[in-house]
């Protein structure tokens, strides 16, 4: 059994997807036809926001356990779907105009209570360009975060339960990324107005339901295993992993993560076709088939921790001489 990691794994190689993209396009130029936008995703945003708002109204006066059960069994999936659509907006995969995508992302933020769409856009695009760079990749946990959580079952469970909180504490480490802009303030103002209206019109029970849906959608829930699936070293040295299980249906194919990193301009509905068109690039990779099984493995395996990540001292293909 390998020893428990006390630090990240360091490599000198560039982030892996840029070279893969070139090779895939050279061997399969036909995949360029998949690069497009899906404006129908906006209808999904409107529908899911309306659905969550309606559910919050329906459970507003129920006993406390009803919002908990409904949020875990239904609301988490709805909010997670909205996070995937926010991700689509970040890559401008819904509308041609950047501002239209930003506004669509803000609308998708409504049931999340805590505005995050605009901030996510800034940090996520850096994650694609500088995967594994400690100073630029917000997807990497902070070193203090990994040390605090450790490798125990309770520590990792609490980390997942409060995953949004830990994510919110990472930006101070990423000093080169703009923290706020005018769109950030617009996001906060509009979403907080929505929160106030929920309380005034429906009552605190409705807000509780939406808050629980938010935390379950990215936390201690099978859906939360998505964050482990994407880049945690479950089969090193491979550092990006896809998930091909049934929950991709309600998660809008977000599990096709290698495919997304290779061609981030392909919208969610066409990612399975990318895998089919270039099978030799994906069929040989380690993959995950069950988020629930991965969640249990992460929690119970003391050799998997927040340190199970690849860190590089370069910016894309340009080496960095300063220490991480």
Describe the protein.
The protein is mainly alpha-helical. The chain has one domain. It is about 50% helix and about 5% strand. It has 14 helices and six strands. The strands form three sheets. It has a two-stranded parallel ribbon. A hairpin with a 2-residue loop joins strand 5 and strand 6 (about 320). The radius of gyration is 19 Å and the shape is globular. The two termini are about 30 Å apart. The model is unreliable at about 315-324 (pLDDT under 50).
Quick recap:
The protein is mainly alpha-helical. The protein has helices at residues 17-27, 41-58, 65-90, 98-109, 117-129, 143-149, 153-161, 163-168, 182-202, 204-217, 225-231, 257-262, 271-277, 291-300, and strands at 9-11, 242-243, 287-288, 310-312, 314-315, 318-319.
Structural key phrases:
mainly alpha; two-stranded parallel ribbon; 14 helices; 6 strands; disordered C terminus
Write the layout of secondary structure elements.
Layout: E1 9-11, H1 17-27, H2 41-58, H3 65-90, H4 98-109, H5 117-129, H6 143-149, H7 153-161, H8 163-168, H9 182-202, H10 204-217, H11 225-231, E2 242-243, H12 257-262, H13 271-277, E3 287-288, H14 291-300, E4 310-312, E5 314-315, E6 318-319
Parallel strand pairs: 1-4, 2-3
Antiparallel strand pairs: 5-6
């Amino acid at each position: 059994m390998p020893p428990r990691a006390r630090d990240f794994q360091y490599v000198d190689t560039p982030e892996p997807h840029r070279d893969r993209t070139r090779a895939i396009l050279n061997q399969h130029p036909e995949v360029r036809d998949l690069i497009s936008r899906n404006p129908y995703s906006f209808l999904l945003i409107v529908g899911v926001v309306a659905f969550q708002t309606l559910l919050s109204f329906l459970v507003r006066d129920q006993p406390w356990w009803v919002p908990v059960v409904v949020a875990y069994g239904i609301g988490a999936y709805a909010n997670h779907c909205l996070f995937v659509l926010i991700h689509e907006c970040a890559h401008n995969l819904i509308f041609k105009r950047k501002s239209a995508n930003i506004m669509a992302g803000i609308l998708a933020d409504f049931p999340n209570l805590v505005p995050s769409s605009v901030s996510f856009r800034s940090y996520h695009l850096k994650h694609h360009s500088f995967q594994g760079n400690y100073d630029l990749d917000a997807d990497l946990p902070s070193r203090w975060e990994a040390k605090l959580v450790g490798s125990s079952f309770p520590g990792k469970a609490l980390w997942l339960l409060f995953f949004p909180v830990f994510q919110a504490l990472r930006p101070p480490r990423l000093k080169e990324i703009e923290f706020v802009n005018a769109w950030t303030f617009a996001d906060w103002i509009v979403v907080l107005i929505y929160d106030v209206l929920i309380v005034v019109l429906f009552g605190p029970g409705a807000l509780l339901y939406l808050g629980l849906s938010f935390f379950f959608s990215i936390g201690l829930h099978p859906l939360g295993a998505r964050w482990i699936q994407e880049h945690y070293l479950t089969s090193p040295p491979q550092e990006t992993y896809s998930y091909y299980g049934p929950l991709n249906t309600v998660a809008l194919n977000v599990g096709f993560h290698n495919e997304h990193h290779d061609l981030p301009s392909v919208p969610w509905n066409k990612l399975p076709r990318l895998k089919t068109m270039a099978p030799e690039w994906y069929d040989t990779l380690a993959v995950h088939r069950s988020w629930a099984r991965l969640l249990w493995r992460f929690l119970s395996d003391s050799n998997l921790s927040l340190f199970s990540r690849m860190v590089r001292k370069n910016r894309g293909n340009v080496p960095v001489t300063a220490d991480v």
